[in-house]
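Could someone model zinc ion with this protein?
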Amino acid sequence: MSQSLFAALQALVGARHVQSSEEAAPYLTDKQGRYVGQVIAAVHPASTEEVAAVVRACVATDTPVVVQGGNTGLMGGATPDASGRAVLLLLDRMNRVRAVDTDNDTLTVEAGCILQTVQEVARTAGRLFPLSLGAEGSCTLGGNLGTNAGGTAVLRYGNTRELTLGLEVVTAQGEIWNGLRGLRKDNTGYDLRDLFIGSEGTLGIITAATLKLFPLPKAQVTALLAFDSLEQAVALLSHARAGFGASLTAFELLSAECLALLREQFPDGPRPFSSARQPWFALLELSDNHSESHAREVFEQVLGEAFEQHLLADALIAENLAQSQAFWQLRENMSDAQKRAGRNIKHDISVPISQVAAFVAHTDALLQQHFPGVRHYTFGHLGDGNLHYNVAHPLDATVDAHMAHYAALSRLVHDSAHAHGGSISAEHGIGQRKVNVLGRYKSAVELDLMRRIKQALDPLNLLNPGKVLEDMRP
Ligand code: 2HG
Ligand code: ZN
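Reply:
Sure, complex below.
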């Protein structure tokens, strides 16, 4: 069976574009090195029609289909299981720009485009595509859509879902839905677009999208702020939202522990505030559609008021692009700094911004009580109420001993986020990592609705089985 499917796939996309499990090894381990899969084949179709034909061949042989973008996800959502039954679909050959419409401020691109390329295409057209995240040099638009990626500009522009007007999708039956509409208003029934976005390849294969473009800002001001407490950072955020309005484009948090880790892991990197005593820092960015001088004037006024009202302890304002990039480098290196320091227990929770300080105080204390000595690396998208509440091993324990507590420790963190009105995953999705814990936080009604949607769209349960929801194969 699998031999004839392999040959059928070769006939559909060309023998050069079908790899064996051994040849596809780099795609079969997730970024964290936690999951390792096996496949019948990895297939690289060149067009939507070829994707549809591959899906039909898989349906005919009852073969699961797992789609993968840049393999930068953190939840194992794009890694096939170890059974070797699935076909892995890679859209790297589908990286064409289909249309740029500057009057409509839209861009239509295929799912295999690298995010950075999408940003560059927009820039060349004199526009901004604002989705921005650490992995942008290697993650793909398809992966961003599949996971409803967030990143560092959500505060101003929203998640991938808010940046998308239309989609092209290959269904679980191998049909093509052309929903590439460039409409900002369309009330003609159920919103299929928003259903496919964030479904992690479990409801359909997104092959192209029509994206929203924005004006390129004329000037940006970046500052690194220091705070005496998290409450103070939250109060400053509120002040900055009121003062800057829609010009506030980023508000990213780093704890003092994070800055210390960055200095340790990137000794040649930037070292702002290296002798500061404050426990919390935030990277603030303001984008201005007038001019550099206007941006700085507004910035200084709002920050001046903030100092008067004791809403911050200190501020470093980037004087030029190089300094601004250095501040951003700190933030973007944070995930890698932790990776270099060894495995840790990661979270991407969100809570209402008004609950952030209470959540951190409560959860830090709880973890010290149950897992004394664990080290907290809390950073992330404070402007969205989304924290990477990551926990590293105590210095007197091994990484392995710490990782053995993964489920119990995460449960405390997730329970705490839930109790503070939050979510257990604001950004990284469910993948396979969180499938088993989802039921604890979603009501039976909500889970049942999700299962019924999955059954309606993918009755044979062939699309990325076992991700988001437990594997529903009989
Ligand atoms: C980030 O915001 C990413 O840098 C990764 O979402 C977070 O590595 C992490 O925990
Ligand atoms: Zn993040």
